[in-house]
Amino acid sequence: MKDKPTVAFLTLGCKVNQYDADAMRAVLDYGGFRVCEAGDVADVYVVNTCAVTAEAERKSRQAITRILKLNPEAEIYVCGCASQNNFSQFARDGVKFISGTRGKLTLAEELVKKYGGEDDGFFDKIVTSDFETGDKYEEFRGTLTMRTRHYIKIQDGCNNFCAYCIVPYLRGRSRSRSMSGVLKEIATAETSCREIVLTGINLSAYGRDIGTSLADLLLALQSCDLRVRLGSLEAGVIDEKFLDAAKGMKNFCPHFHLSLQSGDDGVLKDMNRRYTTAQYLEKVALIRSAFPDAAVTTDVIVGYPTETADAFERSLAFCKEAGFADMHVFPYSSRKGTAAGKLPVLPSSEVAERGRRMTELKHVLSTEYRLKQLGKSVEVLFETKEDGLWCGHAPNYVKVYAMDGARNTVASVVPTALFGDGVRV
Question: Which of 67, 304, 358, 368 is such that its CA lies 20 to 30 A from the CA of 374?
């Protein structure tokens, strides 16, 4: 092993996991590790796992196999939601240490000690003794991102306990970062990026435990020079104060990912979602009254155990009525330990057919929304190059392709045609 080994991160799942990996990456970079891309051959790998679905857990396990094919001698350290849920599935050759959702910064710090000759025995056991989720926000001390958009984690955990969701059991109760901590990190980010994304496990709950709110944070960001984008939101957070705060910002991105899960009231009640379809539609109307061209996107689960054929048809019709700019469509994934995990699942062929039809609607709605963007001047943050074209995102998160561009720069362009999953100049 080299004195200062190369380290790569394989991170699955949500933006919160991405942020946690960025925070660990910063510690290791400062400690002398040479940080490389996830697909590169490295000496040390940190796998930050996800457990939101059974498929996410499977991919987390597969990550270990991929690493060992790249470098059979690699040392692998595992953390995150899937290992919190079931650490034994990662106890295999090559894996030196397994922890859960808590103490990720400690893991990074101990790696620095180990490879710096100050090994204090932290890694003597393959599994940490502490799989508690914690009840206070775990403050990190900075991040090192490989992206042009900078994730800012402001909240962790969730109190909602939706019937299908295992995340509250793995991430713990909702806890918010101090506003001063958030503002300090944003000020630091202004020197290296053009856009920040505020994220959390339940972003809408930000501030409830510390006497503030997400709207108050947006008010504190009125003069922020960076583009500010929000992660996934719950319908309940949308009100006049919140939207007025967003409208008052200098560089707010009008993209609202408003979690739905089902367009049927009976299924919503069974899921323990705390709104009706009528209430949800009122929130969509409020958003569009404040931001007429806003992109309202959502998540939809098909094949929930109590979703009848008629309930699915109502869900499909509701999504069409809401006119989403895009939808993330998920087949229901039964999670042991949740309320819904005790229910018999629907036939896989029926779930697959519902997924096909909902995905078909997704493409129709996405095309309709993207067509409305043609001929309009938009400010695009260019991020990567794909097949010879620069691509990036407009404020409403529509993907834009162009011949000319440069990484981490914003340019004003006019899209003229649909192209792939976005539009093209």
Answer: 358
* Domain assignment present for 72: yes
| Separation CA 97–CA 216 (nearest Å) | 40
CATH code of the domain covering residue 10:
3.40.50.12160
Distances (CA, A) of 373 to 102, 314, 398: 43, 29, 9
Domain match, 331 and 216 both: yes
pLDDT of amino acid 127: 52
- CA 128 – CA 23 distance, rounded (Å): 20
Tell me the average pLDDT across 47-54. 94
The residues that bridge with 422 in the sheet, in sequence order, are 419
In a domain, 128, yes or no: no
> How many distinct structural domains can be found in the chain?
3
Using pLDDT thresholds of 50, 70 and 90, give the confidence band for residue 135.
low
> What residues contact 207, with CB distance under 8 A and at least 6 apart?
176, 179, 213, 214, 216, 217
Q: Pairing state of beta strands 417-419 and 422-424? A: antiparallel
Neighbours of 89 (CB within 10 A): 17
Residue 140 lies in a domain: no
Token pair of 148, please? 């042009």
Beta bridge partners, 300, equal 261, 329
Q: What is the DSSP string of 256-289?
A: EEB--B-S-HHHHHHTT-S--HHHHHHHHHHHHH
pLDDT at 138 over 70: no
Residues 294 and 359 in one domain: yes
